[in-house]
Amino acid sequence: MRSIRRELESQRDALTNRISTSTRSTQDDDHRREIFKDPFGMASITHDDEVVAAVVDTRARQVEEIDRALADIDAGRYGICRECGEEIPKARLKILPFATRCVGCQGRLETGLGRAA
Ligand SMILES: [Zn+2]
């Protein structure tokens, strides 16, 4: 159990580092020079920023999932589905160490959210 915790913590650290690197790269000097050189290239710059924002958003959500899994380890319920209370199969945890729901509940949640929105 201790090694899973370490694994999750290093994944979270890596994601956090990448988030701050991506955020910084949108404000770096190259970008500003680009705008000066090509004032009509704004569309592509905006697009790049949107892509970065989407990537940062996905990573931020992964960090949240990892935090939740770490909290589960602390609470002694790691590997238990948050929705139905069943054990999450080990094979799934191997692929997704921060999974907090079984495949069935995750699927239901995602389709349910789609319908609700
Ligand atoms: Zn479940």
Describe it for me?
- With 117 residues, the protein is mostly helical.
- The protein has 2 domains: 78 residues; 39 residues, no CATH class.
- It is built from 5 helices and no strands.
- Helix 1 runs antiparallel to helix 3.
- The chain is flat and about 60 Å long.
- Bound molecules: zinc ion (ZN).
- The site of zinc ion has 8 residues, from helix 5.
Radius of gyration, taken over Cα atoms and rounded to an integer in Å: 19 Å
Total of helices = 5
Q: How would you sum up the major sheet?
A: none
Strand content: under 5%
Number of domains: 2
Along the chain, the helix and strand elements come as: HHHHH
Low-confidence stretches: none
- Bound ligands, named by name, code or SMILES: zinc ion
Give the beta-strand count: 0
Structural class: mainly alpha
Shape: flat
Q: Indicate the mean pLDDT.
A: 82
| Range of helix content | over 70%
Our measurement of the CA-to-CA distance between the termini, rounded to an integer number of angstroms, reads: 37 Å
